[in-house]
Structure of Homoserine kinase:
Amino acid sequence: MAVYTEIADDEIDRFVSGYDIGAVLSFKGIAEGVENSNYLVVTETGPHILTLYEKRVDPRDLPFFIGLMEHLSARGLTCPQPVRNRAGEALGTLAGKPAAIVTFLKGMWIRRPRVEHCAAVGTALADLHLAGEGFALTRRNALSVEGWRPLFERSVERGDSVLLGLVDAIREELDFLERAWPSGLPKGVIHADLFPDNVFFLKNQLSGLIDFYFACNDFLAYDAAICLNAWCFEADGALNVTKARALLGGYQRVRPFTDEELAALPILARGSALRFLLTRLYDWLNVPPGALVAPKDPLEYWRKLRFHQSVADIRAYGIGE
Amino acid sequence: MAVYTEIADDEIDRFVSGYDIGAVLSFKGIAEGVENSNYLVVTETGPHILTLYEKRVDPRDLPFFIGLMEHLSARGLTCPQPVRNRAGEALGTLAGKPAAIVTFLKGMWIRRPRVEHCAAVGTALADLHLAGEGFALTRRNALSVEGWRPLFERSVERGDSVLLGLVDAIREELDFLERAWPSGLPKGVIHADLFPDNVFFLKNQLSGLIDFYFACNDFLAYDAAICLNAWCFEADGALNVTKARALLGGYQRVRPFTDEELAALPILARGSALRFLLTRLYDWLNVPPGALVAPKDPLEYWRKLRFHQSVADIRAYGIGE
């Protein structure tokens, strides 16, 4: 939960007056999101979400994110739609920071996903991958295999304070992944962060996807591996094979994996686990003073990585039998 | 900003299904408030605020708070109105904690109050004092003069780490206030925490008051002194006499102060400044690990206290000439 920037009432009034959405009736910070500040702005025409892009987001990436939401929306995917102001711009400046207003998406995120939610998110991920086709802009995935070692180096010194032997184990995994990382798999626009808090449900039906601020171009199957890690493990650290089968099966109903993608899944899952282990480890070791967000447990992803290391083939994920 | 309790989607669905307000369409934590967790719950019938009472609130006080909001609402004061569930109860249990749903109040709080806002809040405070008449329940003010010394004792040891000499200066002020604190002033229900973030405005008209969780029975003029401190000082620490005159004048248009109240104002202002100095000092020295709220600067109230100590009579507040 994080709202980093305090916005004055007259600032928000002035900002919103540039849009055709009526006057502001209410304005509240939302205790969600980590990278940006989000506010619920109720205007005479209804609720909207205002996002202020904080310093962890590169402003040069914003046209990609905003354009992607418009592209996906136009292709029928339900996601927040950027609202353009009277000058035709979807990006403005508020309190000295880049800011955008997007439409309000009904629904709630599921705190304890069940099998049917996993199936729905698999389907939605494949829908997203198909809807992303033809999007003109591209964005490199800075958090894929080439990005991991530099990230790792920043946690080497104190990494073993979290778990003795962790630094050596990560180095070994990095050596392996850099050698074995696949190439030539189908690529496209991926969400890259489709955790439960970014998927809304309404009466148990998936009602939309949010938060495209990690989206980039990468292997489509890598996105599925991220979801597998984020949705299909139980609180005790074990993979729920029924959920994995539901998620990957839901995906395949819309976009069947190629044989190469299926063969690569275990290593993509390892890579995805390492990626979140590394960012969480860094955040854990570098909690800023006055932080408004409790850092997430990096060892959750260490346990997931260990699981995937033990996987012989994709039957461990409930598919390919 | 603080949301202390994570609520699962099925828990909120179940809780709201006990009310006649339709199904939940959206559910978001609000990054406001310090004592309780607040959520915006949009249902089929519109937006509502759900409050979860965290451990700093004594559950035995909840009937007073809830009843007061109902009493004030019935008397025409605009404030959140508790929604009763189908069993007729305004208080329920959610995630193991007391919880209430109240109506959503339109408006925004003013980050940089101007003179006209101060006038409006003075009037609203007097309205509140009149509307509170006849409320059957009572609640002692644990943060009035008898409560200050025990609170002070808990900060004695490390108080001077905030400002050298602070502990002795507070002790001296306490000695003085305990001797000189008035008696016999008109009493009633006071808000006791009417800071700018608890007063909503819509198009520069005051649209309502929120957060009655410090309300209690005490001197009515003490409430005005709290507002004076909260609304009428500039960022540089100086009292804005024009704002003070507007606030106290706005109050007097609805409920004129008695001569005794006017004479007591400087000492009530000192007491109010000491009260917030003491609570902020304690919070400053006791930030819990993983705190989601940055503690507020206690020295802001030290500077206000010093100002009031220098006041000869109420002309310093722009009235009584």
